[in-house]
Amino acid sequence: MAGYQLRLKSLVFAFALFVSGVSVVKAADVSWAELNDAQRQVLNPLASEWDTLRPWQREKMLDIASDYPKMNADKQALVKKRLTNWSRMTPYERENARKRHQQFNALSADKKSELRKKWLEYQQLPESERAKLRAESPDTYTDADLN
């Protein structure tokens, strides 16, 4: 009897995974026209390319759109800014941004803290000084938004 119950639980669990997997695929398969007004408003910077995004990219953007109303005004502005910046990037720039993000996430907490501190110091410099640093070391100093 215990074996039967275990198989039944496994079957129910497998069915639940299958059903949830189908719903994820459907959610990520939504065309731009099928998004609701609130989603389109948040994701507007990606409107022209939405229908060409990969399913995992759409799913991530839909998660952002669903979290957006819960964010404070500053966080919402940051999300809009980042989506706009992302939409203007070339595929090559996006791939480099992903790699830098992965490299940053792989760092120790101390190293991350140190880099954040240096970034804040850089941001506080006058624009003329930042321009000078960027000219001297273009690989080190970019206009990337690392907040």
From TrEMBL:
Bias (Basic and acidic residues) ranges: 127-137
Name of the featured protein: DUF3106 domain-containing protein
Keyword Iron-sulfur included in the entry's annotation: no
Organism: Methylotenera mobilis
Keywords attached to this entry: Signal
Domain of life where this protein originates: Bacteria
Pfam families with a match to the protein in the record: DUF3106
Signal peptide feature range: 1-27
Transmembrane segments: none
UniProt region (Disordered), positions on chain: 127-147
UniProt feature coiled coil, ranges: none
